[in-house]
Design goal:
Blueprint (H helix, E strand, L loop, with lengths): L6 H15 L18 H26 L2 H16 L4 H8 L2 H14 L3 H11 L6 H10 L5 H6 L1 H8 L2 E6 H14 L2 H10 E6 L19 E2 L5 E2 L6 H17 L6 E5 L6 E6 L5 E6 L4 E5 L23 H6 L4 E3 L5 E3 L6 E7 L4 E6 L3 E6 L4 E7 L5 E6 L6 E5 L3 E5 L8 E4 L5 E6 L5 E6 L4 E5 L5 E5 L6 E6 L5 E6 L3 E6 L4 E7 L5 E6 L5 E6 L3 E6 L1 H9 L12 E4 L4 E8 L4 E7 L1
Parallel strand pairs: 1-2, 5-32
Antiparallel strand pairs: 3-4, 6-7, 7-8, 8-10, 9-10, 11-12, 12-13, 13-14, 15-16, 16-17, 17-18, 19-20, 20-21, 21-22, 23-24, 24-25, 25-26, 27-28, 28-29, 29-30, 31-32
Length: 589
């Protein structure tokens, strides 16, 4: 009995016979069949090559041929499909993909050159993302209108160049793959392939018994942008991560002792000071209009080659202006880098680690941005009519606020040399300014004895907090954004409840003017420093419990603050840092 051959074998035999009759070489024929018999090294190599070329080709393809309407429909279809997934856990996992896909889809539309359609797409769908982090980034994204704008926005550029990590279980990954196979638009698959890293979580047999499986995914990492590459897993996974984080904080993040940095031989000249967020640099401003920068720990301050390529900003100083400006960078005998450019007293400093910049404000009415890779002044921000006393930066350093002798506060961004908002209403100098943790509001304290709360978005005055008996010099929001602390010349700390607009308590004990106040990251302590060099730590549990219990409170007698004598002639700054929740004090001797 003759075995019947398959149709494909008949076709192959016919082609091979034809090639032989035409005298073609046949030794290379059907070599593709050998691909099914590769070893592991060959498979890995081929997969890597295919992945690399396909990503590049997909980017080119999408940038040239993207159909805005079709892309919008594909996004809406994906969103609708996710919303009807019956399994709630799978639905929540899959919906974690919508945010990065939405952001990258907007940027792809800009790449395609259809600006109006892209803006309409952003406005239509941006309200679907409600978390504070998402809202803040979408606000930054809404100011990007071209490919060139991406490079000028550090957060957006970081989001575009770094992969967004999303946790998906095996079941969720299978569902997504099935959907994309059947309905996936090329632009959606390109975004997932190029800009998103899907971390597949494997299930174990213990999960059948109700135990929580061990996650074999990587921990998320913080990148620049203040953008956080974070997994989207929610429900049980998120609760477990929050529990693990709480345990870690209890075990390893207890309050550290006060760390004191002293600047010697600078009693009369030092006017402000600050430690960088990474605690690797110390910057001090002086009444001589200089800024001195010291390395902390094992850090070495090295001036890099100015010829290195960098993206220019719209607010960069022109080469002609730099040439005519009498400023220079030198190294002092004490090993400090000296930044010169201001013409009067330097009053406040802020580090912007995302773009490696130091900001400074001065009595010369200007704010300056200094590049920390070559220690040059890269931009000058002008807008105030009188000396600038204070400054603060919002979360992710998207915005800068300044307060001045001209009785106004102003809102800035790094890429504009003019103010974005003017907050007018105080009757005397604005001595201090602070952004709310959600970056939607900012508070100002003044010599007119009031604290005012403003809307960052429209500049409207929202609240006026009264109760202080003298000039206010310092402000601090609680990390949860519920309370506001202020202190100044009357030697008391006033704490207001933002929800009720009422004065919650008044903390007394200092013998001299209070110049610095800050809230610990766990909300348990308020740190304050006065001109006599005394630092006090006030426990917050009592008045917070009083508030939650429903009764009002004035001065609470049960508080017993910890007292530290720094023996400093003056204290330049007092701040809690995220690194180990440590309290850092900078003083002069």
């Amino acid at each position: 009995m003759k075995m019947k051959r398959m149709k494909s074998e008949v076709i192959s035999a016919t082609i091979e016979s034809y090639l032989k009759r035409r005298h073609y070489q046949t030794h290379d024929y059907r070599k593709s069949d050998q691909l099914f018999c590769q070893n592991s090294d060959q498979t890995t190599l081929n997969a890597t090559a295919e992945c690399g070329t396909s990503q590049d080709n997909s980017i080119v393809f999408s940038a040239i041929t993207i159909d805005i309407a079709a892309a919008d429909q594909a996004y809406q279809r994906l969103k609708k499909w996710m919303s009807v997934v019956l399994n709630e856990k799978l639905r929540i996992e899959l919906q974690g993909l919508l945010y990065p896909i939405f952001c990258h889809l907007y940027l792809e539309m800009l790449h395609a050159g259809n600006r109006q359609a892209a803006i309409q797409f952003l406005k239509t769908h941006q309200n679907e993302f409600m978390s504070d982090t998402e809202k803040d980034f979408l606000e930054e994204l809404s100011s990007v209108f071209s490919v060139q704008d991406i490079e000028l926005r550090p957060l957006v550029n970081a989001f575009r160049t770094r992969k967004y990590k999303v946790d998906l279980s095996e079941s969720a990954h299978i569902c997504l793959r099935q959907y994309l196979t059947k309905y996936g638009h090329i632009i959606l698959m390109q975004i997932i392939n190029t800009h998103i890293t899907i971390i597949r979580k494997t299930s174990s047999l213990h999960q059948m018994d109700g135990e929580v499986p061990e996650e074999k995914s990587q921990r998320y990492e913080t990148s620049i942008n203040g953008h956080v590459e974070q997994p989207s897993g929610t429900g049980v996974d998120r609760e477990m991560r929050e529990l693990q984080e709480a345990i870690r904080l209890i075990q390893h993040n207890s309050h550290q002792a006060l760390r004191l940095f002293t600047v010697k031989n600078a009693i009369e000249n030092a006017s402000c000071g600050l430690i960088a967020p990474k605690m690797d640099k110390l910057a001090v401003g002086f009444s001589t209009a200089e800024i001195r920068l010291w390395a902390v720990g094992d850090t070495v301050l090295v001036k890099k080659n100015d010829k290195q390529t960098c993206v220019s900003s719209t607010c960069d100083i022109s080469p002609f202006y730099k040439f005519n400006e009498q400023e220079s960078t030198v190294r002092s005998e004490a090993g400090a880098i000296i930044l010169r450019g201001h013409t009067d007293v330097v009053h406040d400093l802020r580090f912007i680690p995302e773009v490696d910049i130091l900001l400074s404000v001065s009595s010369d009415k200007d704010m300056r941005a200094w590049k920390l890779n070559n220690y040059s002044c890269t931009a000058i921000y002008s807008g105030h009519n009188y000396p600038i006393w204070c400054m603060d930066t919002s979360v992710f350093n998207l915005y800068i606020g300044t307060g001045s002798h001209d009785r106004t506060a102003k809102l800035w961004s790094l890429d504009r040399t003019f103010p974005l908002r003017i907050f007018a209403g105080h009757f005397l100098d604005v001595n201090c300014i602070k952004f709310h943790p959600n970056a939607r509001y900012l508070a100002t304290g003044s010599a007119d004895k009031t604290v005012r709360l403003w809307s960052k978005d429209d500049g409207n005055l929202l609240r006026v907090y009264v109760g202080a008996q003298s000039t206010i010099y310092t402000l601090a929001f609680s990390p949860d954004g519920k309370y506001l602390a202020a202190a100044g010349d009357d030697k008391s700390i006033y704490i207001w409840d933002l929800a009720t607009n009422g004065l919650l308590t008044e903390l007394k004990g200092h013998k001299d003017t209070i110049m610095n106040v800050d809230w610990s990251l766990d909300n348990q302590y308020i740190a304050s420093a006065s001109l006599d060099g005394i630092v006090r730590l006030w426990p917050t549990q009592d008045f917070i419990k009083t508030l939650n219990g429903g009764s009002s409170s004035t001065m609470l007698q049960s508080e017993t603050p910890q007292i530290y004598s720094t023996y400093c002639s003056s204290i330049l700054s007092l701040n809690y840092y995220k690194k180990s929740n440590s309290l850092i004090c900078i003083g002069t001797k």
